[in-house]
Specification:
By secondary structure, this protein is α/β, with parallel strands linked by helices. The protein has a single domain (3-137), classed as Rossmann fold. It contains four helices and seven strands, in the order E-H-E-H-E-E-H-H-E-E-E. The chain has a seven-stranded mixed sheet, with helices on one face. The longest helix has 12 residues, at 10-21. Bound molecules: adenosine-5'-diphosphate and magnesium ion. Magnesium ion (MG) binds next to helix 2.
C-alpha cells in the first residue's frame, strides 16, 4: 500500500481510502498531512466506508474528534487544525483512545506535536496539476 498515487477527483480519493482501509489492523495511528482542502477528510470518508460503516463522515474541525463504530473497530477521526494549546490535546484523552480496537486518523498532527501517539502510517496529500498527489508511507 506504500507509494505515490495520483487522484484526479474526489471519487478517486474515496476509492483510495477504501483500498487503504483493507490494510488497517487495530491498533493503528494514521497521520494525515496536507494543506486545507488537500482532501484529507475525503480520504477518511473512503476509509470509514471501506471499514463497512455507512455513516456520513463530517469534518471534526469544530468538535476536534468524531467517532465511527465499524466492524473493524472504532475509528477516531481527529482534526487538530484549531488546537490552541497542549491542554486541548490533553483533553482529547488520546492515550485512552489507543487500544486494540482503535484506529486513529489524525488531520493536522503537527498541531498536536509532543502529545500524539507515534504513527503506524503517514499519508501526505498535496495539490497536483490536476487533482491531488498522495504519498503513503510506513514510518
Ligand atoms: N483528488 C481530488 N481532486 C480534486 N478535488 C478533490 C480530490 N480529493 C478531494 N477533493 C476535494 O477537495 C475539497 C477539500 O477536501 P477535504 O477532504 O475537505 O480536504 P481537507 O480535509 O484536507 O481540508 C473537497 O471539495 C473535495 O471534494
Ligand atoms: Mg479536513
Amino acid at each position: 500500500m506504500e507509494g505515490e498515487y495520483k487522484l484526479l477527483g474526489p471519487d478517486d480519493t474515496r476509492v483510495l481510502g477504501q483500498s487503504f482501509s483493507a490494510v488497517l489492523k487495530c491498533p493503528e495511528v494514521v497521520y494525515l498531512e496536507g494543506d486545507l482542502g488537500a482532501g484529507k477528510t475525503t480520504l477518511v470518508q473512503g476509509i470509514v466506508s471501506g471499514l463497512g460503516s455507512d455513516a456520513a463522515v463530517v469534518s471534526p474541525t469544530y468538535t476536534l474528534v468524531e467517532e465511527y463504530l465499524t466492524a473493524a473497530g472504532v475509528v477516531h477521526h481527529l482534526d487538530l487544525y484549531r488546537i490552541q494549546s497542549p491542554d486541548e490535546v490533553e483533553s482529547l484523552a488520546l492515550r485512552d483512545r489507543c487500544d486494540n480496537e482503535s484506529i486513529l486518523l489524525i488531520e493536522w498532527p503537527e498541531r498536536g506535536a509532543g502529545g500524539l501517539p507515534i504513527p503506524s502510517w503517514k499519508i501526505s496529500m498535496r495539490y497536483g496539476d490536476q487533482g491531488r498527489t498522495v504519498c503513503i508511507t510506513r514510518p
